[in-house]
Amino acid sequence: MKSLLTILLAVAFGAVAYADIQAPPMTDMGPTRKLGRGLSNMLFGFNELPATIVKVNKKEGNSAIGYGVTKGLGRSLFRFGIGWYEIITFAAPCYKSSYRPPYRSNIPWINGGFEEFPPELGWNSAYDYTGY
């Protein structure tokens, strides 16, 4: 009886361990997320312009007219282009054989990287990725 109980416990723990390794780390990045990211970058990437102007104005003072507009326009155009690329290639894992964004994240490069989705305009933001 004890050996049967031991075998059943071993099988139960083995089944739980087997279920744990079935979801690889990149499971949340799939083709539908890539398509959604591409659509949001194309449709709402222009929000990068006013968001960048505000960020530059807060960080560097009144240089927002020249540098903020130029940087924001470049970031908006980049988001539009990368959105187009991600919509066209959403079914294929292109970047490093995965569905991750093909641009560098904002986490290691606080002032130079991009968030996964475009910034959200407005005073109240429900998400952490906007930077406000």
Structure characterization notes:
This protein has 132 residues and is mainly alpha-helical. It has one domain. Helices cover 54% and strands 0% of the residues. The longest helix is centred in the middle third of the chain and has 25 residues, at 64-88.
The overall average pLDDT, rounded, is 77
Q: Treating each run of at least 4 consecutive H or I residues as one helix, how many helices?
A: 4
**Span of the ends, CA to CA:** 62 Å
Instruction: Report the biggest beta sheet as strand number plus sense, adding barrel if it closes.
Output: none
Radius of gyration: 22 Å
Task: Write a compact overview of the structure shown.
With 132 residues, the chain is an all-alpha fold. The protein contains four helices and no strands. Helix 2 runs antiparallel to helix 4 (64-88) and helix 3 runs antiparallel to helix 4 (64-88).
Q: How would the blueprint of this fold be written?
A:
Elements: H1 2-20, H2 31-44, H3 48-60, H4 64-88
Helix pairs in contact: 2-4, 3-4
List keywords for this structure.
single chain; 132 residues; mainly alpha; 4 helices; 54% helix; elongated
